[in-house]
Design a protein that fits this description.
alpha/beta; globular; 171 residues
Length: 171
């Protein structure tokens, strides 16, 4: 399974245009394609449209979905139901971030997050998906138990070569 975009393609995360997507998703996706993007990274739920309908809209705009942000907790609880729409849309990279609600985590909780990500990566991989961890700049700067946070979860999430996805530049 190749998750690579065609050369030169950069995805636009739909979180950055979430208000426009709520008002007029069809026009927003068309505008994204018109300014040169070939792919988008999904943010949030599919709403009241089916995955098949979203696929038709994306196809009309000439866009692919390079990845989707999903709740780690929801994905753990019911991965089968959560995967079907993304298969229909053609998205094979799922990104999760720290569990909700967002709050400071202890070193043990970061270790646990790495274990959870590692366990989840196996069934996702078997179903044709890759799992990424979407981290935020604070996770690259804060130290817990003498290590930067991203190092803590990476110790446990390394068996599946879990990609990191940054929302900001990290050292």
């Amino acid at each position: 399974m190749s998750l690579a975009l065609h050369p030169g393609a950069i995805s636009l995360q739909l979180h950055s245009v979430r208000e426009e997507m709520e008002r007029d998703p069809d026009s927003t996706l068309s505008a994204i394609a018109e300014i040169g993007y070939g792919a988008v990274e999904w943010f949030g739920e599919l709403g009241d449209r089916s995955a098949s309908e979203w696929r038709r809209i994306l196809d009309r705009a000439g866009l692919r979905v390079s990845g989707a942000h999903l709740s780690l907790t929801e994905l753990e609880q019911d991965p089968g139901t959560r995967l079907e729409p993304w298969q229909t849309i053609g998205c094979h990279l799922l990104a999760c971030s720290a569990p909700e609600p967002l709050r400071p985590l202890s070193g043990d909780e970061w270790d646990d997050l790495g274990r959870r990500l590692d366990l989840l990566a196996y069934p996702l991989h078997a179903a044709g998906f890759a799992l990424a961890y979407h981290h935020h700049v604070v996770e690259c700067l804060l130290e817990v138990r003498g290590g930067v946070i991203v190092q803590l979860y990476a110790r446990h999430a390394g068996r599946q070569q879990l990609p990191r996805q940054s929302s900001a530049v990290c050292p």
